[in-house]
Amino acid sequence: MNDGLLSIENLSKGFSSSGRRVAALDNVSLTIAAGETLGLVGASGSGKSTLSRILLRLVAADAGSIRFEGEDWLALNGAPLRRRRARMQMVFQDPLAAFNPLASVGAVLDDPLRIHGVAKDRRPGEIVELLERVGLTADHAGRPVRALSGGQRQRVAIARAIATRPSLLVLDEAVSALDVTVRGRILELLVDLQKEQGIACLFISHDLAVVRAVSHRIAVMDGGRIVEVGPAAAVVAAPQSEAARALVAAVPRLVTDPC
């Protein structure tokens, strides 16, 4: 893994609630290397989704800096930002909400290719390649999104995200709505794609067991702050923060002793 893909320094964001200012992010600093998966875990309301939305430039930060692929990410606007968005893509928890449910799978995948300048005669072939890369077939291109299963829709969401050849995927609770079997297959797909293409991932979840399965390092959030960062195995085996210990304690364990 190479250093320096993403660097977040002292990022802060507050929101007004009931007449008072609430800190959603409080001087958050993180790095992600090229080809690395950083798991970001924390309880609901800890600031994880706010961080992801600032990264995607869906929400403005109050303070702090983000450097992505050597550029000042927060300084980009207009056409330069639109071009650079191809390099950082997001996979949401609910892909159906992120798609036009009446659209076909082919139309969903055609959009990013068209927007980012892929020639019209090349797009059908690239759509088939994307579908095959995520374990679907060319026949899926003609199906409406609403007719797919949850796992198939999430595969299409991943195919759309990698269509622009990003260097970073931001996955916000991307498998939490799936059943255990489908979740495992999607996690395997993400690991395989990372090995094949060297994509870095920011994998956001409240589920420490899922994050442990795919992450090189884990960062723990609590109350808008990063309270612990370390190798995934070390954070799970010997959590140092109260928030991490609570997450570890919440991971289900199989009961092997007889009743």
From TrEMBL:
Single annotated GO MF: ATP hydrolysis activity
Protein's UniProt name: ATP-binding component of ABC transporter
Alphabetic keyword roster: ATP-binding, Nucleotide-binding, Plasmid, Transport
Keyword Hydrolase: no
A Pfam family assignment: ABC_tran
Domain ABC transporter: residue ranges: 6-248
UniProt keyword Nucleotide-binding, yes or no: yes
Alphabetized SMART domains for the sequence: AAA
Organism listed in the record: Rhizobium johnstonii (strain DSM 114642 / LMG 32736 / 3841) (Rhizobium leguminosarum bv. viciae)
Protein family per UniProt: Belongs to the ABC transporter superfamily.
